Amino acid sequence: MAELRNWLIEQGFVVLADEYHADAFGNQEVTLARPVAIRLVKDRSQWYVEACGRDGQWRPLAVWDEAMGHGRPTDYSAPAEAERLRRLLREVELRPDAADGR
Asked: Edge-to-edge, what's the strand order for the sheet holding 27-33?
């Protein structure tokens, strides 16, 4: 996910928070914004990506994917999450309320 973080920074995102918890399985959360907010999460060795909607709620990219009419994804691996973010980012920025209430 370091590559994805670097890509987001290259796209103009700013790191708002980077929390690493060595005592909690090495969990990590990195929050970036451009103005849409993206959160990269490592929870017990599983990586996933969330986007914050206009309503202030964090939702997994799978929810955004479905809300944009692309269907529910089946691959939740770190590479699939990175590809999903690259593919959905512009749509999320244009429709920040698309996943509200989901």
From this structure: 14-21, 27-33, 37-43, 46-52, 58-60
The model's pTM: 0.90
Beta bridge partners, 38, equal: 32, 51
Q: E strands within 25-85?
A: 27-33, 37-43, 46-52, 58-60
Structure confidence by residue, pLDDT tens digits, 45-59: 789 999 999 899 999
The residue segments making up the domain with residue 67 are 2-94
Give CB contacts under 8 A, 24+ apart, made by 72-79.
Answer: 76/48, 78/1, 78/47
Q: Is residue 82 part of a domain?
A: yes
* Percentage of the chain lying above the pLDDT 70 cut: 99
Tokens standing for residue 48: 């996933």
Residue 76 lies in a domain: yes
79 lies in a domain? yes
